[in-house]
Structures are given as structure tokens and as C-alpha cells.
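2024-03-11 09:14:02 INFO queue: dequeued item DUF1800 domain-containing protein, len=432
2024-03-11 09:14:02 INFO validating residues
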Amino acid sequence: MQPATVIAAARFGFGRRPQDPEPADPRAWLAGQVAAPAPAPALPEGHPATLREIFALQAEDNETMRAGQGRPHQQRIWRAEAAAHLALAATEEAGFRERLVHFWANHFTVGRQKVPYTVGHFIRDAIRPHVTGRFEAMLLAVIRHPAMLAYLDNATSIGPDSRAGQRSGRGLNENLAREILELHTVTPAAGYTQADVGALARIITGWSFAPQREPFGFLFRPAAHEPGEKRLLGRTFPEGEAGGVEALAFLARHPATQRHLATKLARHFVADTPPPIAVRRIEAALRDSGGDLGAAARALVALPEAWDPPLSKLRPPTDYVLAVLRALAAPPAVAERAVGTLQYLGQPVWNARAPIGWPDAAAEWASPEAMLRRVEWANGLAARGAERDAAGLAEAVLGPLARPETLRAAARAGSAREALTLVVTSPEFHRR
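2024-03-11 09:14:37 INFO prediction written
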């Protein structure tokens, strides 16, 4: 097996499975995935798939909560979504698109603690369809989704001079506007000011959603919208919903946004400290294509720095768990248990501590206690695959990147379980 096969699966996906065929051209294999149809997670039969169904069950839970009987649907909904999300990443042969889904879901973090009913739908509806489309389309879908509007409090933001503001005395909430500028698009490198934050917050006043009536999703409320033109980063935008759409398109196409996205993509796929040349090439792909994320993904694959040195990025807990599940060819049902595993390992599904999302550097994940927890979990899971030949598994999933020390230690192990544990907890397996 050529090293590029392992790198293609581990760095651009979630690792090889023993049964996966070896692509003749790993780079072409990855580029082909960018153009392939997006797979969909397999939700349980009867799961509420639409916002209408989700909000109906949320309303039921509100009633039972008032009656002192808890929220019977809340945990079931988000856990089923999370398990399906993990199961697809653990079983999909072509994993590049799935890694892009995880990357963009983290870029546009929403926390399930605050929006447990809608977070799964957010990933399916606002992230997944757009990972190889245009960034401005993803940005608009994300900002309009009820999960983001609720997570960052824009659904209740009211223009002070709007009809609703004058009547109620309630006012502006700048949370979503601030994160759009700071995290999602231009970043402070663009030199925006507090006045720009306030302007964007006014531009998107009235952007809300309707949980109890059509369209059961995004809804523009003219009575809550701040009237008049607004000036953002030197540009003037008209009042109304159209002004918000125009402002988001402007931010999505901004050179500072393209530089920010390029840096994050290079950090995720290449190195914790991304080489400037890699950032420039991805930035150029975004600029020249008008923000086409598919073009950025293909530029990533073409980067020499993404292939050498191999296995230079430490896998965070989600990546590590998925890589082990893939290496042991775990069935999709195991993903349900992986939801709890990730809580134990410190990266609970869709529950980052802040809107900035999970960190993407080794220093954040490499504490002794965190690594010990990985070993404990992997040893328990290895018991289920104890009939597997550890040397054969190392060859199938790590190929020439398996260190001789790892193979010797596995050969001397006292049991098949111990040998498997040594392989899946080796330094090279912890990296991608």
C-alpha cells in the first residue's frame, strides 16, 4: 500500500477500514468525492425529519414540562441525530465530504444545550448540502436557520426604532452580528468597529422563525426590523430583508473572509501552524472561483504540504473515535454508544463551550488524562474485535506508516485484545 492511500483516508477522511479498496490515484479519488452526491444520515424510522415535526414535539415537551413531567422527546431527538451523524462518518467509504461536513459544522457552531431540538436539522439542512457549494449560500442558510437564530438570540432582537421596538421598549441583541463578523466571516483582521457590529445587528433585525405556523422556519418580521439604510464596513445597505441578504453576500465575498477561511482550512487539513503558501493557494482558489468551497477542497487536495509530512495532525476525540470504529469495522449501531464516549473523552457531540467551536490544535487535546481516557476506551472496544489479527489490521489501516516498534509490540502482546489495543493507541494511529 502506498503512503498516499493512508494519508488520503486519514487526513482527508476519518481513516481506513480493513475492507476499503486501495484507490489507484488517491488524489483523484479525493477530488472525485468533491463532485459526488452528498450522502444523507440514516435516521431511525419515525424520527421527526422536518422542522414542522420537530417543533410539534418541542411544543408537546413544553406542555409536559409545565405539568412537571419533563421533556420526553428532547434527548431522543438530538441523540438520534447525533448517532446518525457519527454512523455515517464511521461507515462511509468516501470520507472527504463527511470531514468537510464536520469542519463546517464546527465553523458555524451551535450548541445543543441551548437548541437541542433543532441542532441535528441544522447540520442536515444548513451545512450538509452546501459543503462543496458557494460559501455565501451556506452563510445565508446558516444565519436563517432557527438553530442559529435561537442560539445567538437574533430571533428576539428588535430594532429600537421599529414599530415593535417603540411599542414594547425592547431592543437590539448584537450576539449574532458580533459572531458573524468575528468568527464566521471577516474576523477582526478586517478592522471592523463596534459601530459595524451594531450596524449588522440592525440589518438583521426581524430575522426570526415561526415554530408554530408556516413556514415553520425562517420568517422575516417587518414590524421588528430597524428602518432606514445602514452602513457596514464602508458600504450602505437598504432596509428590509433584502438588505440583510445583500450584507451577508458582501461579507461572504470579502477578501478578509477568504483569508480567514483559507487559514482555517489549512490549519485543519495541513498543520496546526499552516504554511503561508498553503493559505495563499486556498485563498486564491476561493477568490478566483467566487467563494466556491468545492474549488477550495480541490485546492487542498492539490497542496504538496497536505501530503508531506504524513500524520502530522493530532486527532481530536471525535476523529480518534471514528478512526477506531472504522479500523475495527464497527457496525452503525455502535455509533449510538459513541455519543456517550465523546462526552467521556471531552468533545461532546455538538456541544462546544462557545460559538468559536472546538479547537484545532494538538495542545488542546494532548493532556495526559485525556490520552489515558482514550487508551481505556480503546481497550474496552478492542475486546469486541479480539478475533482480529493486529498485524493484519495495522497493515490494512496504516500500511507503510505503521512503525516497526508498534508491530513488534503487538507481536509480543499477551493477548489478541492487547495487541489490537497497542495498534489503535499507537502514536501513529493518534495522528492523521
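2024-03-11 09:14:37 INFO annotate: The two ends are 17 Å apart (CA to CA).
2024-03-11 09:14:38 INFO item closed
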